[in-house]
Each structure stands twice: as structure tokens, then as C-alpha cells.
Amino acid sequence: MLYWVGYAAAYDRRAMKVARAVRPVAAVAQADFAVLGTEKRCTGESACRMDDEFLFQELTTSNIETFSSHDVKSPYSSLRQDYPQFDGQYEVTHHRQFLAELVAAGRLKATATMNEKVTCHDPASERIGAGHVTEAQTVAVSCPFCLTMMTDGITAKDSEVKVCDVAELMMDENG
Fold first, then answer.
1. If we measure between CA atoms, which residue out of 160, 163, 155 comes closest to residue 139?
2. How far is CA 168 from CA 38, 46, 128, in A?
3. How many structural domains does the chain have?
């Protein structure tokens, strides 16, 4: 699996911690896992959404060439939605799904053994229905923007609730 780190982890310190949590968890599970490093470029999603077709095509073409040279299956929704028009067909898996598959295969411990209540928040891009309120001590998030907003909101309320990404919970359990 190629882990597409995304631009939030390039600029946001909190998102960097999440991205850094995925690798050791994958290593514990002995998963086939890699990142592009210096070969990674922007997906072009923002350019596409702003109708900058020229920039989007340039980034898409370059990324498809890079992916082809590495036999990539990519975990980023823009690649699933926008790249097929440029013959870029990729199996897309969110890191939350990737970790769940490793748990299901018995290669990682589930975080269900924690001694506290945990509420999971679905990423906005994957939300199916409305959420519900719980008395959780921890809110597990798997979207960098949701992570920032929930952390800010909980901090503003002076709450004792901890906000973390699913990968961080898995690292605590499997680290």
C-alpha cells in the first residue's frame, strides 16, 4: 500500500503526528507499506475544484506517471473520483480502513481493550448519516480537518475529552 500523506500533514503539526502514527502501526502488522517521499506531488484536487483544468491535468499526468512506475494502489479519494478521466484507476483505501483490515486479519490488536469510552467520528467525506452524542472520554477522528475543528472546539469548552486519530489509538495499543 502506498500511504498518500496529503497536504494537511505537510503543514499542520497535529496532522503530522497522525501521519507519523500510521507507519509504526503498519510496521507492527508487517504490512506492505510505503510513501512516495520526495516524489509526492499535490493531487490537484484544489485546482480541479477551482476549475483550473490546466494545472489539474499537469499534476494528474505527473502523478499517474509516478504511480505507474511504482505499481500504486492509492488511499486518497480525489484519485478515485477525478483521476479515471485521465486513465488513472486506483483502489482507494482510507488509513482507517487499512488499519481495520489489519485488525480483522489478526495482525493488529483492536483498541477495544481500552479502559475508557471512545466515540468515533466519520470523516466528513465519508459520512453516511447523522452522528449521536455520547459521554466519551476520547473522540477518535480520521480526517485532519475534523481533528483540528474538534480539538479547537473541545479546548474552547475546557473539556477533559481527548481528541485523537484512529491511527494514534492503534499506535498506543500496538506500539
1. 163
2. 24, 27, 24
3. 2
- The residue from 74, 96, 118 where one domain ends is 96
pTM equals 0.68
| Averaged pLDDT score across all residues of the chain | 76
Q: Which of 127, 58, 114 shows the shortest CA–CA distance to 86?
A: 58
Residue by residue, DSSP assigns 19-52 as HHHHHHHHHHTT---B--GGG----SHHHHHTT-
The domain boundary, picked from 62, 96, 130, lies at: 96
> Domain span at residue 24?
8-96
Which residue matches cell numbers 499506535? 171
The Cα–Cα gap between 134 and 168 comes to 21
DSSP per-residue codes, 94-105: -HHHHHHHHHHT
pLDDT at 159 over 50: yes
Query: How far apart are alpha carbons 5 and 81 in whole angstroms?
Result: 18
Helix (H, G, I), strand (E, B) or coil at 138: strand
DSSP state of 84: G
How many other CB atoms are there within 10 angstroms of residue 2's CB atom? 20
